Each structure stands twice: as structure tokens, then as C-alpha cells.
Prior knowledge:
It is elongated and about 65 Å long. The protein has 90 residues and is mostly helical. 58% of the residues lie in helices and 0% in strands.
Amino acid sequence: MADYLNTEEQEFFESLHEKELVISPDKNEIDRYINYARNSIETMNKFEIELTVRDFSKFKAKALEQGINYKSLVSMLIHHYNSGRIALNI
């Protein structure tokens, strides 16, 4: 196969393609990944907002122009505002 692989690397590569390789993490590693997942998941809150039909339609259109759905755009705008990346000129 590849001349630059040693025997062990060659066997590993072949086992990947033959789907023979099974990696079993130990309990400590599994617990570590569970903690990573728990700490990275944030609780989501929902809220309701009233908009005119015209504003809502324009907002949805702008979200589509960016290739995202409007709910993601609302979430992103709030996140950017909270982190100081955007500001209101009132």
C-alpha cells in the first residue's frame, strides 16, 4: 500500500477499511466524555415576541439570504448583543 507506513500503521489502516477495528474506552475515559457533554450543554429558554407581519416577513427573508432559519438568526443576534459584538444606536 503506502511505502511510508510501518507494519503496525499498515495493519491499523487496513483494519479501518475492513471495519475490524474496535476501540473500547475505559470507564474513566467514558466518564470524562460524559462530563464534557454535561458541561457543554446549556439549558435553552424560549420566549415569545410579537412583530408586525411586515417586520416578521422581512426578518425571515434576511435569514434566508444568510442561509439560516430565522430562529437561529434571533439567537445569534441576542448572543452577539450580549457579548458586546453589536450595539444599539438608540
